[in-house]
Write a structure and sequence with these properties.
The protein is mainly α. The protein has helices at 9-27, 31-38, 44-62, 65-70, 74-97, 103-131, 137-166, 170-188, 206-209, 211-218, 222-250, 255-263, 267-283, 285-295, 309-340, 347-376, 378-389. The mean pLDDT is 86.
């Protein structure tokens, strides 16, 4: 089967590094909102502001990082970003132990982590395009997607249990250490990597900062996918902090229950990511992307009707399973399409522009929905996001495009 195809030792190390980092992130799922609510006793507006500020400032810091990443070897950049995340996250448990943890520190750490995340994703996408053959990109992206959802399925329940046993910052330590281990795994990849050559002036130019957006907006299929992804991700993520407040504070869910209802449905992501290559082989890339992209918008409205107790937990898990399964199909197909249709010398800038735009949109919507919840109520704000999501399939492209920019695969 295509999903079992061997992609080489170097991809194996890349996948292992991605896996350990993903499992650490899974353990730390929702750690900052939990700390804000349970330790700092923050309300909905503060929790939303925490998520929004980190993303906005982190995205702005990441704007010049796109060209910087583009013209450097990608693996050292990935290692540096892992080490930056490790260092920033470790300040949280240290401050907690010293009794000095505050809301401002959570904001600063979230900014550093957000900027490092964007730079890391840009470098890893560009590195993947030259590490594996074009025909294997969907298989590779499917494996990353499956790992993400498996880690999200296993991590939050374990993280919730760890918080109950050892305190609210233990999962932040696990997340930090996972980035350190990821850096070690990336170093083990070895092999050579050619240094990208900058033509013209040696320093960064203003035009390079917007080159990623220019390439996306000029592409007839990437453009609608870009806007669809931004709006869908923004609306889904804007509901996250509100759900944390609703479930933990309003409905009295325990931390382990909060983690469980979002963890078990991630099995759908594993199913979807394994199905993606087979569906594409049978129905074609564009049709699968269009169908799964439309279906993923149909589920989140159900979260507005959640109730306390077992019935509420079942409802959340059913809604999340449907959503995550559709995302599990859509995400690796989108990631592969984006790499196929981006010139090799513009991948890092394109992925940076995409991530920055997504982060800014999520931040703006998260802040807006925090204010909306303060005016209309948490449940009503979640319902409004769900209704708006039903219109997002209108942004999906109606026709396919042709690939661009064949990469050269690294030997090894």
């Amino acid at each position: 089967m295509a999903g079992r195809r061997a992609l080489g030792r170097r991809f194996g190390w890349l996948w292992a590094a991605f896996a350990v980092s993903s499992y650490g992130t899974g353990l730390g799922f929702g750690a900052f909102p939990l700390i804000a609510v349970l330790v700092l006793h923050s309300g909905p507006a503060q929790v939303a502001a925490l998520a929004a500020t980190g993303r906005v400032v982190g995205a702005l810091v990441a704007v010049p990082l796109g060209p910087w990443v583009e013209f450097r070897r990608k693996r050292p950049v990935m290692i540096a970003m892992d080490l930056a995340r490790f260092g920033a996250l470790m300040t949280v448990p240290l401050a907690f132990l010293l009794g000095r943890l505050g809301f401002a520190q959570l904001l600063v750490v979230s900014v550093v982590v957000a900027a490092a995340d964007i730079a890391f994703r840009a470098a890893s996408g560009a590195y993947l395009k030259v590490l594996v053959a074009p025909r294997d990109l969907l298989v590779a992206n499917g494996r990353f997607e499956a790992t993400t959802w498996t880690a999200t399925m296993v991590g939050p329940p374990l993280g919730g249990a760890a918080i109950g046993l050892f305190g609210p910052v233990v999962t932040v330590v696990a997340d930090a250490v996972s980035h350190l281990l990821s850096a070690l795994g990336l170093r083990a990849i070895g092999g050579g990597e050619p240094r990208p050559v900058r033509t013209g002036a040696s320093g960064p130019r203003a035009g390079e900062l917007v080159e990623g957006w220019r390439g996306v907006l000029a592409h007839p299929v990437l453009r609608p996918l870009f806007f669809n992804a931004i709006v869908v991700n923004g609306l889904i993520m804007a509901s996250g902090p509100l759900l944390a407040v609703l479930l933990l504070d309003g409905l009295g869910y325990a931390p382990w229950q909060y983690g469980l209802v979002f963890a078990l449905p991630c099995a759908g992501g594993l199913v979807g990511s394994r199905l993606a290559p087979r569906l594409v082989a049978r129905y074609g890339q564009h049709r699968v992307m269009l169908t799964s992209g439309a279906l993923r918008a149909c589920w989140p409205l159900g979260l507005a009707f959640v109730q306390p107790g077992a019935a509420g937990m079942v409802l959340i898990m059913a809604v999340q399973f449907g959503l995550v399964t559709c995302c599990g199909v859509f995400n690796p197909v989108l990631a592969t399409y984006r790499l196929d249709h981006t010139d090799t010398d513009r991948v890092a800038r394109t992925l940076s522009a995409w991530s920055i735009s997504s982060s800014l949109a999520i931040a703006a919507m998260t802040a807006g929905w925090g204010l909306l919840a303060a005016v209309t109520g948490t449940r009503t704000a979640i319902a409004i996001a769900g209704v708006l999501l039903l219109a997002t399939p209108l942004l999906l492209p109606r026709r396919a495009g042709s690939p661009r920019g064949e990469p050269s695969v690294l030997a090894g």
